Amino acid sequence: MTDQRAEQILARLTELRADDAPTRGGRILSYVYDPGLAVVDELARRAAQQVQHVNGLDPTTFGSVARMEADVIGFAAGIVHGDDAVGVVTSGGTESCLLAVKSARDRWRARHREATGMPSIVAPTTVHAAFHKAARYFDLRLDLVPVGEDGTVGADDLLARCSGDTALVVVSAPCYPFGVIDPVADVAPRAAALGIACHVDACIGGWVLPFWGEGLPRWDFRVPGVTSMSLDAHKYGYSPKGVSVLLFADRDAKRAASFATTDWPGYPVVNPTMLGSRSATALAAAWAILEYLGADGLTGLTARTRQATETLAGVVAGIEGLRVAGAPSGPLFAVRTDPEAAAGRGVDPHQWSDRVRELGWTLQPQPGLRQHGGPALPPTTHLTVTPVTAGIVDALAAAMTRAADDVRGRPPIDLSALPDALPALRSDAPLDSAAATEILAALGLAGDGPALPDHLAPVMALLEVVPAPRAQELLTELLARLNER
Ligand SMILES: *Cc1c(COP(=O)(O)O)cnc(C)c1O
Known about the structure:
Structural class: alpha/beta
Distance between the termini: 33 Å
Bound molecules: pyridoxal-5'-phosphate
Low-confidence stretches: none
């Protein structure tokens, strides 16, 4: 391309991107999934380019879309032993989860035509936020079952919450916050006996656990009673963002996820997923990558991921004042303060992750959480390990160790007096944008321009003491301002 204006525009984008966290090289341990293979990125780029202007809305006009979807769905079903499973390709994990809920809700309604109440979703506290979103969008009650401090949930506790109102039980393989695989094998068959659908959220695990090797509990379609499963190709399928697979054991469940109308004057609409017009670029990239890697390629990459995960978990175990939370299976884990650390020798995970970030590595803080009817969950730092991590593990381990040395003994930031000092934080009245801005300003989080804090520990401390609805409004305001002038 030689057009000068076009070159200048691209140069400007390069400048904008310079401030982003690096998406390749293993410096960020969440959000991005780096196989460490340049050929995969190049392949994805070229595949996406070939379908740049395709509209996935209509697979009868663009037959390549249906073909690529069939291949990606077939690959996904094969690795999770869904021999008769059917599926859809969505724009990501959230959309897959939303549609699993919509399908279960509509099938529940079809079976309970007389019902006047709201159907429910039963799930452990650790279930992904996408199910909170689904419950709110689609008017279901989310019935959260407390987990232990180690992130595990009892199958009996989940089943005890199930009733005639339950449209769906959700279990994860693994859950995001703690990397624990929920008791799929104990839940799904018993849910089935009650006539309740069971979704396995394998958004993050779906493309990696099948290749992990020994030592995992059963979690896939070999467990009777699993009715749907989500697997994000844009995580351990190494695709660019915008592609996930939602599998159903039953064709009618897939039909119930879709939308059709012939009741308007335009073209007859059939949308198997939530979008209308949709890009095929991420699908083509995922298709090409999965064709290229195949099960062998994914097995090799997973071996690197597993090795790096075990090394890093060992590093954490060796750091005084920290420990891995619970007993995760797979490539995710959370790090918490060691409750048995000697007095004054504990490491606060939030201040630790801020310090690790200053040393050049981005880990993800997770605030502590009070559970209804269960133990408080500790503040943690989340790590998602990818194949590229294997190549940089020593440097990362050094940063983790040094950061702990630098912050050891610092007490957690305590903002528990804040709601008393700032009554607006406690009131139930909904906040409008102006009122939310005032509170953010009082907290030093809103200036004239966009304001994002350098350190996240104070923000986490805030979230730990402010009632959830208020915290949600404040974060919404903070983020909304980022692209407003
Ligand atoms: C990532 C993830 C999701 C949501 O996926 P997005 O692709 O971010 O929309 C859902 N469940 C789990 C367990 C996840 O890790």
